[in-house]
C-alpha cells in the first residue's frame, strides 16, 4: 500500500507550514486529519475547506491513524505523541512528508535564515503566472496566490526549506536557493559553524544537473559554499557582486523599490528593469533570487519581471492590516535582529517622515538570550519601541530558570540602545500606551512570530470605533 492510501494525522495543524501540508494532502485525496492546541483563523479556514481538524491534542484522535506527523512545536512528552509511539504508529518528521510529496517533481527549495517565505512566494507566483501550474508549500500566504499551498499539474514543486530541526535535509531538490546564512535557532544549532554545516549539507544534496543559487553579498553564503563542495553549478546574485546583479535602487510611488539588473541567463546575458510593490533592499535581493530561479525554469525574463511587478507581498510580511484615523498598522513576522532591521529600514524607506512604532514580541527564551546584544542594536529606524513579554512557543519557562526570569520586558527594554524603548507587561498595557499616544500619520508595526500581532489588530479595531 502506498503512503498516499493511508490516513495521515497532523499535530499542530494550525501552524503556517502544517496547514499548508494539510491542504496539499487533501488536494491529493489523501485521508488527512489534524489537531491543534488552540482555535485559530487558520484552523477555521481548514474546517471551511472540508478538512477534518479539531481543537486540542488528545490520544483519542489516533483512532484509525496510520502515520502521525507532528509539527516541530509539539513537545516530546505531549500525551498524543507519546501514545502514538506506544502503539507503534509511524511518526514522520514533517520534512519526510514534504520530501515524499515532492519526490516525483522538480523540487525548487528556498532556504535561508531570512527571506525564504517571500522568495518562495515570488517564485511560485512567477511560475503560476507563466502557466507552469506549480505545486507549492510556503510558510506564508503570497497575496497574489491567496493560499499557502497548492497541488498543481506542472512538474515544478516550490517549497520553503526550513532549517529548524534540520527539516531541509529531508529534501533532494533540483534547484536550491539560499538567501543568506546567519546564526539562529540555538535550540537546533550550537553555533554558527553548526548552522553553516547544515546549509552546506543542504546544497550538497543538489544533483549535478541541478543548480545552486546563492547570495554573493552574504558572508554566510560565501562561507557555506567554501565548505560545501557542491557538484551542481552555482549561480550567485547580489547588489555588490554576483553573476546576477541589481543596481540603481530607488523608492517608487507604489511604496516599493525599482531597480535595474543584469545576469548570466541560461540562454545568454539578460538585462532589464523591475518595479516592486514591496519595500527594502532585502526585497530587491529576494526578487533577484526569484528571477534567477525563474530563468533556471525556462521562464522568459519579461514574463518574470511583469509577474514580480504584481507581487504584493505575503501574509505577516510587512502586511498592511488597515488604517484608521490616519494611523497605518502593519504586521511583520520578523523575529531575528537582521529581520527587524530590514523591516524597519523598509518602513523608513516607505515613510521617511513617519512616526514609526515598533511593537516587538521576543520569540523563545533561547533565541532572545543568545541574540540579545544584536536585538539591542536592531531598532534604529523606529521612533518608539514597545517590548512585549516573550512568546515561548515550544519552550517552557521552567526549563530556563534564572535566565527566563531575567528575560522580562523591563530588563529587555533596558538593554535596547534606543532613545524611547518601553516595556509592556501585557497586550493590554501596550494597547493603552498606543491609544493614548498615536496620532494621524503614525505607522505601527507589530514584530512577532507569535501572537503579538493581536496588539495591532486590537488597536485597529478600537481606532475604528
From TrEMBL:
InterPro entries hit by this protein: Mur-like_cat_sf, Mur_ligase_C, Mur_ligase_C_dom_sf, Mur_ligase_cen, Mur_ligase_N, MurCDEF_pg_biosynth, UDP-N-AcMur_Ala_ligase_MurC
Molecular function terms from GO: ATP binding; UDP-N-acetylmuramate-L-alanine ligase activity
Alphabetical UniProt keywords: ATP-binding, Cell cycle, Cell division, Cell shape, Cell wall biogenesis/degradation, Cytoplasm, Ligase, Nucleotide-binding, Peptidoglycan synthesis
Residues noted as binding ATP in the record, renumbered to the chain: 112-118
Enzyme class: ligase
Subcellular location: Cytoplasm
Domain Mur ligase C-terminal: 316-450
Residue span(s) of domain Mur ligase N-terminal catalytic: 7-104
GO-annotated cellular components: cytoplasm
EC number: 6.3.2.8
Major site of localization recorded for this protein: cytoplasm
Record field: catalytic activity: UDP-N-acetyl-alpha-D-muramate + L-alanine + ATP = UDP-N-acetyl-alpha-D-muramoyl-L-alanine + ADP + phosphate + H(+)
Pathway entry: Cell wall biogenesis; peptidoglycan biosynthesis
GO terms (BP aspect): cell division; cell wall organization; peptidoglycan biosynthetic process; regulation of cell shape
A Pfam family of this chain: Mur_ligase_C
Limits of the Mur ligase central domain: 110-294
Function: Cell wall formation.
NCBIfam families in alphabetical order: murC
Family of the protein in this entry: Belongs to the MurCDEF family.
Protein name: UDP-N-acetylmuramate--L-alanine ligase
Organism expressing this protein natively: Candidatus Thermofonsia Clade 3 bacterium
Amino acid at each position: 500500500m502506498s503512503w498516499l492510501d493511508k490516513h495521515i494525522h497532523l499535530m499542530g495543524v494550525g501552524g503556517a507550514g502544517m496547514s499548508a501540508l494539510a491542504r496539499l494532502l487533501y488536494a491529493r485525496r489523501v485521508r488527512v486529519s489534524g489537531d491543534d492546541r488552540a482555535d485559530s483563523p487558520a484552523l477555521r479556514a481548514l474546517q471551511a475547506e472540508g478538512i477534518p481538524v479539531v481543537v486540542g491534542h488528545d490520544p483519542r484522535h489516533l483512532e484509525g491513524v496510520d502515520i502521525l506527523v507532528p509539527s516541530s512545536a509539539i513537545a516530546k512528552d505531549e500525551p498524543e505523541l507519546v501514545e502514538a509511539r506506544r502503539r507503534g504508529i509511524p511518526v514522520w518528521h514533517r520534512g519526510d512528508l514534504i520530501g515524499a510529496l515532492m519526490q516525483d517533481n522538480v523540487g525548487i527549495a528556498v532556504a535561508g535564515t531570512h527571506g525564504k517565505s517571500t522568495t518562495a512566494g515570488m517564485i511560485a507566483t512567477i511560475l503560476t503566472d507563466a502557466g507552469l501550474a506549480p505545486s507549492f508549500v510556503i510558510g506564508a500566504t503570497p497575496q497574489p496566490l491567496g493560499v499557502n499551498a497548492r497541488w498543481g499539474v506542472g512538474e515544478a514543486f516550490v517549497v520553503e526549506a526550513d532549517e529548524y530541526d534540520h527539516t531541509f535535509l529531508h529534501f533532494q531538490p533540483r534547484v536550491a536557493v539560499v538567501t543568506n546564512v546567519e546564526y539562529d535557532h540555538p535550540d537546533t544549532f550550537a553555533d554558527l559553524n553548526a548552522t553553516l554545516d547544515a546549509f552546506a549539507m543542504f546544497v550538497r544534496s543538489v544533483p549535478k544537473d541541478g543548480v545552486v543559487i546563492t547570495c554573493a553579498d552574504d558572508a554566510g553564503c560565501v562561507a557555506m559554499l567554501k565548505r560545501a563542495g557542491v557538484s551542481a553549478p552555482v549561480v550567485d546574485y547580489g547588489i555588490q557582486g554576483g553573476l546576477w546583479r541589481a543596481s540603481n535602487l530607488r523608492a517608487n510611488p507604489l511604496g516599493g523599490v525599482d531597480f535595474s539588473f543584469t545576469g548570466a541567463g541560461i540562454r545568454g546575458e539578460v538585462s532589464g528593469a523591475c518595479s516592486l510593490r514591496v519595500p527594502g533592499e532585502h526585497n530587491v535581493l529576494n526578487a533577484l533570487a526569484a528571477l534567477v530561479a525563474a530563468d533556471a525554469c525556462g521562464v522568459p525574463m519579461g514574463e518574470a519581471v511583469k509577474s514580480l511587478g504584481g507581487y504584493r507581498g505575503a501574509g505577516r510580511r510587512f502586511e498592511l492590516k488597515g488604517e484608521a484615523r490616519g494611523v497605518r498598522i502593519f504586521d511583520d513576522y520578523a523575529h531575528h535582529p537582521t529581520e527587524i532591521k530590514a523591516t524597519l529600514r523598509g518602513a523608513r524607506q516607505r515613510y521617511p517622515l513617519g512616526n514609526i512604532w515598533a511593537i516587538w514580541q521576543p520569540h523563545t527564551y533561547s533565541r532572545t538570550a543568545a541574540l540579545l546584544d544584536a536585538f539591542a542594536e536592531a531598532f534604529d529606524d523606529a521612533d518608539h519601541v514597545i517590548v512585549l513579554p516573550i512568546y515561548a512557543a515550544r519552550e517552557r519557562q521552567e526549563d530556563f530558570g534564572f535566565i527566563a526570569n531575567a528575560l522580562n520586558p523591563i530588563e529587555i527594554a533596558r538593554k535596547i540602545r534606543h532613545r524611547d524603548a518601553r516595556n509592556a507587561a501585557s497586550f493590554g498595557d501596550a494597547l493603552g500606551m498606543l491609544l493614548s499616544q498615536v496620532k494621524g500619520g503614525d505607522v505601527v508595526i507589530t514584530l512577532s512570530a507569535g501572537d503579538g500581532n493581536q496588539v495591532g489588530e486590537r488597536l485597529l479595531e478600537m481606532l475604528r470605533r
